[in-house]
Amino acid sequence: MGKQWYQRRVHGECNKARTMENIFEKQGIKFKIITEDMGDSVCDFMWENFFPDEPISRSLKLERHWVIDEGHLKDSIKDCSSIAALDSSGSIIGVRLGKRKRRSQWILKIFERSFMSLPGWCWDLSLE
What we know:
This protein is mainly alpha-helical and 128 residues long. 59% of the residues lie in helices and 10% in strands. The protein has 5 helices and 3 strands; from the N terminus they run αβαααββα. It has a 3-stranded antiparallel sheet with strand order 1-2-3, with helices on one face. A hairpin with a 5-residue loop joins β2 and β3. It is globular, with a radius of gyration of 20 Å. The N and C termini lie far apart (61 Å). 7% of the residues are buried.
């Protein structure tokens, strides 16, 4: 019973994936791993379509700065784990930025955790 359930489950998921691919292909949408030569277009897309409505950047009135473009957006593109949705003319209509973390980057992980806990720590001090 377990093997049959697994096979139905796997084949069902594969069929769903094929159906989704067909739906997007019919609409002229293709997905592509973002390459470094797409970096400027991705940055433009994010600043036009993401950052203005993203709650933190909106509340901080964040404006475009080269540090964010280079240090966050383009850095996320370097390891080829980010994907863009392109329309039939090749224009970007969606972006999913990703960044792999490696065990060897444990110092960076500690820094990120301590940096992210800093606002909460400062908030606790202000309440005393």
